Each structure stands twice: as structure tokens, then as C-alpha cells.
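cron nightly-structures :: item 1 of 1
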Amino acid sequence: MNRKIIFLLIIGLIFSGCKKEEKIEKNDNKLKISVTLLPYSDFVNRIGGKYVEVNTLVPPGASHESYEPEPLKLIELGKSDAYLLTGSIWEFENTLTGKIKSGNEKLTFIDLSKGIKLNDNNPHVWLGIKEVKTISENIYDFLISKMPDEKEYFLSNKNRFIAQLDSADNYIKSIVEQMDNKAMLVYHPAWGYFANEYGLEEIAIEKNGNHPKASDLAKLIDRAKELKIKTIFMEKQFDSSPAKTIADEIGAKIELIDPVPPDFIKNLYDIAEKLKRSGN
């Protein structure tokens, strides 16, 4: 290898090292925060902005009810400054974070469900707008406790997010008001907080984490016919075969909705549009 090539390689290594150093320095003032679900990553990023770096336990497309992380993932999350929990009521999260807690005694755990009134012990609190506002307040309180000098920055971000939630809320209300049929047939019973907010009746196909028995399926089909349901809302993280069976029997279509969206506001409008064209 001639000297010119060697010289260029050395220069390249020096500059790549400088870039790496610059990136590390740039991230030094960030809080490293871990969460279990993608929506919480979205909430923290919206409020924390440039001062947070968020790791998410359950990756996109994985089931938030049965995901099994690799040991290296748990080690990575254990290096965070804090773990912001969905809530102590959620057994799935308790099991996973229990593995992170062992050997990470110094890691701070914050329960973001503080102040939320639980509905029938339903852990899916992040799907109700009113509940997300409380979650946002808890995130804000945590951030200013760690970075009090940036209080105005976090407050501005939080208020902007709340305003976006209010706009989406008003839009969904305007659509639901025009719906004659307020029944919302879903696969996974995650939508209780959302349904309660808009006077919808959540009817779930799944029972206690399992596919319905043949007798339960028959009852669901009869009830769906009685209610003249034209759309079944299916979560893409779950097996759709029971929903397809019902859809075939009652002549309904299936719409995919996401209970763990990476962009919460966008997802609210997506659900609103699907409710609008549901024909229910």
C-alpha cells in the first residue's frame, strides 16, 4: 500500500474519531430514559425534546402482552438514568422490569400512572386522552426534578402536546356524535379508556388473553348481527383469525388499529377516520 493511501486512511480515522467524540459530548447533557411501550417513548420525546434519549423495551410490531426481550436488551435498559413505568397494575411490565431491577439497585423507577383512576383494573391507560394528560404531567414533573433549569422548555413542550391532544379530542367527538351505532367491536380489550371517553361500548373478542371458545364466538356473532356491526377493529399485533370468522359471518370489514403507536397524535386521527367510515 503506497504512502498516499496510508495517509488518507489515517486522516479518515482521525476525522471519524472526532465525529464520534463530538457526538458523545453532544449527548452528555441528555437524560437516558427507558420505557416499556412506543407511545410512552413518544410522550417523553414530545415533552423532553432535545434533553432526552429514550430506549423502548417492546419494539415496533411486537405484542405488548407477550414480548420476551433478549438479555442484552435488559442490560442496555438497566444503564438508563430512569425507567418510566406504565403502571404497577400491569403484570406483564412488572415481570419484565423485575428482571431489570435485579442488579440495578441505583436505577430510578417512576410510575406514570400516578393520579389515574383505573377502569376495572385495565392497564391500557395510555389509550385514553384524559389519562395521557395525567401521564404527561407526571413526565413533566420528573423532568423538572432532574433539570429544573429547563422548566420553561419542558412546560412549553408539554402545553403544546396538551393542545394537540385537545384538538384531536374535539375532532373525535365530532365524528362519534354522528355515529348511530356506538358499539366498537375489537379483538383485544385495550380500548376501555378510549371508549369511555366518547360514550362508545367496547365489545372484545378476546377473553382473558385467549381466543374465544366456539360457544363465545357464536354469542359474539349473534350480538354483532343484532347490533348491525359493519366493522371489526383488529390490532395488528394479534392473530386475526377469530375476527375474520366473525367478519365472514356478519358481512363486516376489518380495520387495523394500533394500541401501541409510535406517533400518538397521528394514531388518534387515524382511529377517528376509521370510526368515520366504519358504517356503525
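cron nightly-structures :: done
The CA atoms of residues 75 and 92 lie 18 Å apart.
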